[in-house]
Specification:
With 335 residues, the protein is an alpha/beta fold. 37% of the residues lie in helices and 16% in strands. It is built from 11 helices and 12 strands.
């Protein structure tokens, strides 16, 4: 698989990563199968999708434990991307950026992941009660201690409200201010934010910032939480604990209205051959946004991980990209 650089060329990863959250958190609890998730991780590594994106809050903790079973055997094959800064309570998630918590959380993640170093340690959310400089400084100390190789920053979603239209002029203003503050303390090697055909806002503000500074970009939810695969049926419904059950883009009406996006992905896929899928076209669009962009699609089954990895071979033409650029804005706010 093609390799891409994160952080001014200091780190290299496969062009398509693997989002591990669906294996343990947020989506369809009844579908979670440990052995099948392990097979998905092995399949991704076999095909060069070596960036494994996890977080301590996924589960909580169970996702890191699951990956630890793979890393015990295949640590040299993997690039481990973990996160800190969110704690799961009984019915809610809260930000925690206290330096002492950051240090304890890193040590705990290292134990669960069965590794002595995390390749990319990302700040999941900024704690409004702790100066960002203190949190980021504690994370930088982990690099100095050899527990972490590089630092990343997760951006809040831009949504589809005022300022998040085609211009996107105000979509990520807070994130950009946070990034500038963090850069004064220790270099940001990667930024992670949602980027997909139906949520392109990050391409208008965050990607230029990253490109100007040699910072990598991890595209979260590049398949629109499954919608852009074309496999979801409007009105079919979701399990009560599935985040999509409460999401305005996944109401029956919104899904029906947004089928125009899937139809376009299918048209482009047909032009590229019988084996190309809408999901691969959606990922190829993300890859085409810049050489520093690495999509991190979630997958908890080996065939899906293999399908996603295959997107690295799909090269979209200028006509393909123009057709997708002309698509209407997706119906339903994300945030």
């Amino acid at each position: 698989m093609e390799l891409r650089s994160i952080g001014a060329g200091a780190l290299t990863v496969g062009a398509v990563g693997l989002g591990c959250m669906p294996m343990s958190w947020a989506y369809a609890p009844s579908r979670r199968r440990g052995p099948e998730s392990l097979a998905a991780v092995h399949a991704a590594l076999d095909l060069g999708s070596n960036l494994l994106d996890t977080a301590d809050v996924y589960g909580p903790f169970t996702n890191e434990l699951l990956l630890g079973r793979v890393l015990r055997e295949r640590r040299p094959d993997a690039f481990v991307s973990a996160k800190v800064g969110l704690r799961a309570g009984d019915q809610h998630v809260v930000a925690d950026g206290r330096p002492g918590y950051v240090r304890r959380a890193c040590d705990a993640s290292l134990r669960r992941l069965r590794t002595d170093v995390i390749d990319l340690y990302q700040l999941h959310r900024v704690d409004p009660d702790v100066p960002l400089e203190e949190t980021w400084g504690a994370m930088a100390e982990l690099v100095g201690a050899g527990k972490v190789r590089a630092l990343g920053f997760c951006a809040l979603g831009a949504g589809a409200g005022p300022g998040a239209g085609r211009g996107g002029d105000r979509a990520y203003g807070t994130t950009l201010r946070h990034l500038e503050r963090a850069q004064q303390v220790f270099p940001v090697s990667a930024v992670q934010a949602e980027l997909s055909v139906w949520s392109p806002q990050a391409a208008w503000q965050l990607l230029p910032w990253c490109a100007d500074r040699g910072v990598g970009f991890l595209a979260a939810m590049p398949l629109g939480s499954g919608f852009l695969t074309g496999t979801l049926t409007p009105g079919e419904g979701f399990e009560s604990q599935d985040v999509r059950a409460r999401h305005p883009r996944f109401t029956a009406d919104a899904m029906a209205s947004n089928q125009v996006l899937v139809a376009a992905l299918r048209r482009v896929a047909r032009r590229h051959g019988p084996g190309v899928t809408p999901a691969q076209v959606a990922l190829a669009w993300v890859l085409a946004q810049g050489p520093q962009v690495v999509p991190v699609p979630g997958a908890d089954r080996a065939p899906w991980a293999a399908e996603n990895a295959g997107a690295a071979e799909v090269l979209l033409s200028a006509a393909d990209l123009a057709e997708m650029a002309a698509l209407p804005v997706a119906v339903g706010a994300w945030d």
